[in-house]
């Protein structure tokens, strides 16, 4: 009775140790701590850690979008169609009060100049302000108001500015250390025990960016996933690779203007291909909506 | 002795009433009623006024329902063409369109419908791709851990109501003071 038990105990211990052994790329000291804690638990009771820990490291990333601020330029067919619709609507309409007033005034002027004019007859109807004068005064008021420029070429070239390309939606990219390389990716950070992935994504936004971005996260559900396996040299039983879950957020307020040294970019969907790795881009392209 | 006498009287009254001998029966009925004064009359006093009141109320309610005129509907002002617009003096002198121009317009409309259809199909496809990506993400999360999956499926109560300013024609000016606008609200308010 005692001998088989001892054998079983001796088998399970090394197996559990091997499960948690090895170091994952980008793992913090936290992982080591958990391994020793769990081992301590297994020594006393086997049933506590029945749940197998997955070999994938979990990370959460945030896809922060700045939505367009101005309406996009019309394409040629849209311009043409708009013009034709305007004409058709004009033809089908009736004369407005203002237009009738203009016609009346024009008639009166022509009669005055013709000399065939009896001032006593129309003394009551004479108006101080002609409709044409009203129109002119409105035009003057409009000219005195200067709206801001729609497109500013210099700002558009600056990839780090959040004010570029106001007619398109922009995505935030940050340069981060992954393994031994520095890559451009959507800001991400590792998941910690006791928080949901959504909270991890929020943490990613606040800690990795120096500037204060106020963002509204659209729900608790991830919108995409990217998983990659570590190169075989570093791969162990404990960590096969990483799964990155993406969460969508909308920029509600951009904080103070960015300093020139900031390691993040604002890019349109079409420009992402120049900065992201192809496999990563393929996954990320799906959930970034451009319209 | 008196009880027996009373019972005997009642019995007589009863037989006389049944034989329809009117004079005697009426006198004896009064006596019959007088005998029974202590038993019933109190109940009659309470029940009758209440019942009468109830009857009167019911009749009043029925009268009110019949008298009620059905309220008029509030007119929808957008659907009524104002008489000003149907005035003949307002008609525009429309120049006649040449054949080429009308043809050009018809072709442009067809071109436009094709363009819009392409745009719509592209939008629908993009949305489907996004949904597929989300489904994949949820499946992967389920494989990872059940509790994180459940947490991801929960609704975020702080998200709604969500507002966002849409795009305008020109970007907002940073230091612009809008002039105070005053307006007179002349919308007609109807009461039913």
Automatic annotation (TrEMBL), chain A:
<dbReference type="InterPro" id="IPR040008">
    <property type="entry name" value="Ribosomal_mL46"/>
</dbReference>
<dbReference type="GO" id="GO:0005762">
    <property type="term" value="C:mitochondrial large ribosomal subunit"/>
</dbReference>
<keyword id="KW-0687">Ribonucleoprotein</keyword>
<dbReference type="InterPro" id="IPR015797">
    <property type="entry name" value="NUDIX_hydrolase-like_dom_sf"/>
</dbReference>
<dbReference type="InterPro" id="IPR033650">
    <property type="entry name" value="Ribosomal_mL46_NUDIX"/>
</dbReference>
<dbReference type="GO" id="GO:0003735">
    <property type="term" value="F:structural constituent of ribosome"/>
</dbReference>
<feature type="domain" description="Large ribosomal subunit protein mL46 N-terminal">
    <location>
        <begin position="56"/>
        <end position="147"/>
    </location>
</feature>
<dbReference type="GO" id="GO:0005743">
    <property type="term" value="C:mitochondrial inner membrane"/>
</dbReference>
<protein>
    <recommendedName>
        <fullName>Large ribosomal subunit protein mL46</fullName>
    </recommendedName>
</protein>
<keyword id="KW-0496">Mitochondrion</keyword>
<dbReference type="InterPro" id="IPR021757">
    <property type="entry name" value="Ribosomal_mL46_N"/>
</dbReference>
<keyword id="KW-0809">Transit peptide</keyword>
<dbReference type="Pfam" id="PF11788">
    <property type="entry name" value="MRP-L46"/>
</dbReference>
<keyword id="KW-0689">Ribosomal protein</keyword>
<comment type="similarity">
    <text>Belongs to the mitochondrion-specific ribosomal protein mL46 family.</text>
</comment>
UniProtKB/TrEMBL annotation, chain B:
<keyword id="KW-0689">Ribosomal protein</keyword>
<dbReference type="GO" id="GO:0005762">
    <property type="term" value="C:mitochondrial large ribosomal subunit"/>
</dbReference>
<feature type="coiled-coil region">
    <location>
        <begin position="117"/>
        <end position="151"/>
    </location>
</feature>
<keyword id="KW-0809">Transit peptide</keyword>
<dbReference type="Pfam" id="PF09812">
    <property type="entry name" value="MRP-L28"/>
</dbReference>
<dbReference type="InterPro" id="IPR039145">
    <property type="entry name" value="Ribosomal_mL40_metazoa/plant"/>
</dbReference>
<keyword id="KW-0496">Mitochondrion</keyword>
<dbReference type="InterPro" id="IPR019192">
    <property type="entry name" value="Ribosomal_mL40"/>
</dbReference>
<keyword id="KW-0687">Ribonucleoprotein</keyword>
<keyword id="KW-0175">Coiled coil</keyword>
<comment type="similarity">
    <text>Belongs to the mitochondrion-specific ribosomal protein mL40 family.</text>
</comment>
<protein>
    <recommendedName>
        <fullName>Large ribosomal subunit protein mL40</fullName>
    </recommendedName>
</protein>
């Amino acid at each position: 009775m005692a001998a088989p038990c001892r054998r079983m105990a001796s088998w399970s211990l090394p197996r559990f140790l091997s499960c948690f052994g090895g170091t994952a790329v980008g793992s913090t000291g936290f992982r080591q701590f958990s391994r020793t804690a769990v081992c301590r638990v297994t020594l006393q009771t086997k049933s506590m850690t029945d749940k197998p820990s997955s070999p994938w490291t979990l990370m959460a990333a945030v896809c922060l979008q700045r939505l367009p601020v101005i309406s996009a330029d019309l394409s040629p067919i849209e311009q043409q169609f708009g013009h034709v619709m305007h004409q058709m609507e004009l033809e089908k309409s009736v004369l407005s009060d203002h237009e009738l007033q203009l016609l009346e005034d024009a008639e009166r002027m022509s009669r005055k100049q013709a000399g065939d004019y009896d001032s006593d007859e129309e003394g009551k109807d004479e108006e101080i302000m002609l409709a044409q004068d009203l129109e002119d005064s409105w035009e003057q008021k409009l000219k005195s108001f200067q709206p801001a420029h729609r497109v500013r070429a210099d700002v558009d070239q600056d990839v780090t500015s959040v004010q570029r390309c106001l007619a398109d939606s922009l995505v935030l990219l940050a340069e981060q250390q992954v393994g031994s390389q520095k890559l451009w990716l959507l800001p991400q950070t590792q998941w910690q025990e006791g928080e949901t992935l959504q909270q991890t994504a929020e943490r990613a936004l606040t800690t990795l960016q120096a500037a204060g971005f106020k963002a509204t996260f659209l729900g608790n559900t991830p919108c995409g996933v990217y998983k990659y396996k570590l190169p075989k040299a570093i791969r162990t039983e404990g960590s096969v690779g990483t799964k990155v879950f993406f969460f969508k957020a909308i920029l509600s307020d951009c904080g103070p203007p960015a300093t020139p040294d900031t390691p993040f970019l604002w890019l349109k969907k079409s420009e992402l291909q120049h900065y992201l790795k192809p496999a990563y881009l393929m996954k990320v392209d799906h959930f970034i909506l451009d319209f | 002795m008196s009880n027996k006498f009373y019972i005997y009287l009642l019995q007589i009254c009863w037989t006389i009433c049944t034989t329809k001998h009117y004079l005697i029966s009426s006198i004896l009925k009064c006596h019959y009623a007088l005998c029974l004064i202590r038993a019933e009359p109190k109940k009659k006093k309470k029940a009758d006024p209440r019942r009468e009141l109830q009857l009167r109320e019911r009749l009043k309610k029925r009268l009110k329902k019949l008298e009620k005129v059905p309220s008029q509907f509030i007119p929808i002002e957008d659907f009524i063409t104002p008489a000003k617009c149907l005035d003949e003096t307002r008609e525009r002198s429309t120049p006649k369109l040449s054949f080429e121009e009308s043809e050009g317009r018809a072709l442009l409309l067809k071109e436009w419908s094709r363009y819009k259809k392409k745009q719509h199909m592209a939008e629908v496809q993009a949305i489907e791709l996004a949904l597929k990506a989300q489904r994949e993400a949820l499946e992967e999360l389920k494989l990872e851990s059940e509790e994180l999956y459940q947490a991801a499926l929960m609704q975020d109560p702080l998200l709604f109501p969500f507002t966002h300013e849409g795009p305008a024609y020109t970007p907002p000016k940073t230091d612009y003071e809008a002039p105070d606008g005053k307006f007179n609200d002349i919308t007609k308010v109807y009461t039913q």
